[in-house]
Amino acid sequence: MSILITNIKELLQVYNSNVTILKGKEMNNLPVLKDAYLYLENDTIVEYGPMSDCDGIEAETTIDASGRVVLPAWCDSHTHLVYPEDRAGEFIDRINGLTYEEIAKKGGGILNSAKKLQEKSEEQLYNQALERLNKLLKLGTGVIEIKSGYGLTVESELKMLRVIQRLKKETQAFVKVTFLGAHAIPEKFKKNKKGYIDMIIKEMLPKIYEENLAHYIDVFCEEGYFTLEDTELILKAAQKYNLPAKIHVNQFNAFGGVELAVKYKALSVDHLEELTSDDIDALKKSNTMPVALPQCSFFLGIPYTNARAILDAGLPLAIASDYNPGSAPSGNMNFVLSLACIKLKMTPEEAINAATINGAYALGLSSMYGSITRGKKANIIITKPISGYQLLPYSFGENLIDTVIVNGIIH
Ligand code: NIG
Ligand code: FE
């Protein structure tokens, strides 16, 4: 199967060499080829260039992209896409004045989702998640990370991971799987957190390893959830099973989680709504990708990640949706892009880089995804006719995505 896209108004993210991460000032640079073509074969980007060089190239399918922008599909490096049902009731509670923490203390929040998930079959969870994922594909997401963490028992965590593995096998999106057993302390272990951590380390991790169910480990390192000591125990255990870390840190409180993550060579540290100068210093000495999740700040009304401080320190930054029923009930990366510009004060160039190449880096995939480079995977967005790529973040709430090619297949 070959696809030729012609008359592209702006082809973004064109890199002849295989760039895998962009940091600080580099993020403000977005290479654009005007009046271009792009040629794909099966699941691979084979060639691109100015339209004047397109003569003689033939393909089974030709798409005329006159007036349109073409760019790599979004790489969403942080989601909780598999969940049992919405939590609109808690949304109303928050409108009426309760905070996310207060709702969690009453047994709502993650524990609410866990109780419901335990009652659902693998089949039900799979079908719901597939429907969500198919919607996201049409909105331009080609690579996605999905976490467990609403199981909180051996059986249900494995059930979630199997659902995610099935999504990985049966959809065109490239899926990375993260084990988040340490998402909350289950009711049963309320007075025995050590017992639950033991269960994660001694029962869940060996089974996950045996069945090869996860690529990464995550911990919700936060007051009322998992302390630095708890997090370190879990990260140490995960090292034995070769599961690199991607950690929830600094969502509500900053108390050294970033430094700990860096010590364990985490691939990413996610949230960072709270951020100290020590955190920035720790990141400077690391290869860890900071990830901002602006939809969570938007939805919960908590501070936004200080993206300018991160970028001005010369660090890289990725943005992701955090799609989950409690703090960000949407996986629309186009809205994430708008929030990055409007609320995090990122330029459109920085935001697009953060949602593509750096998102791919946060999943260990940036040599295969995240830019228009020969040999990279054919994951491509074609927009509707627009005046220029700035319209993507500018026109918040509007769907400017026309066609999405994922793994070489047109959606
Ligand atoms: O990233 N903070 C922890 N986990 C999710 C929220 C999960 C939930 O509320 O269900 C987050 O915001
Ligand atoms: Fe999250």
From TrEMBL:
- Provide the alphabetized UniProt keywords: Cytoplasm, Histidine metabolism, Hydrolase, Iron, Metal-binding, Zinc
Recorded catalytic reaction(s): these are:
4-imidazolone-5-propanoate + H2O = N-formimidoyl-L-glutamate
Q: Where does N-formimidoyl-L-glutamate bind?
A: Y150, N324, G326
User: Where in the cell is the protein located?
Assistant: Cytoplasm
Q: Could you confirm whether the keyword Disulfide bond appears in this record?
A: no
What is the required cofactor set for this protein? Zn(2+); Fe(3+)
What's any one GO cellular component for it?
cytoplasm
Listed pathway(s):
Amino-acid degradation; L-histidine degradation into L-glutamate; N-formimidoyl-L-glutamate from L-histidine: step 3/3
Give start and end of each Amidohydrolase-related domain: 69-408
- According to the lineage, what is the superkingdom? Bacteria
Binding residue positions for Fe(3+): H78, H80, H248, D322
Query: Which family does this protein fall into?
Result: Belongs to the metallo-dependent hydrolases superfamily. HutI family.
For this protein, the record's NCBIfam families field holds: hutI (TIGR01224)
Q: Which PANTHER family does the protein's record reference?
A: IMIDAZOLONEPROPIONASE, IMIDAZOLONEPROPIONASE-RELATED
What protein name applies here?
Imidazolonepropionase
Q: Which organism is it from?
A: Paucihalobacter ruber
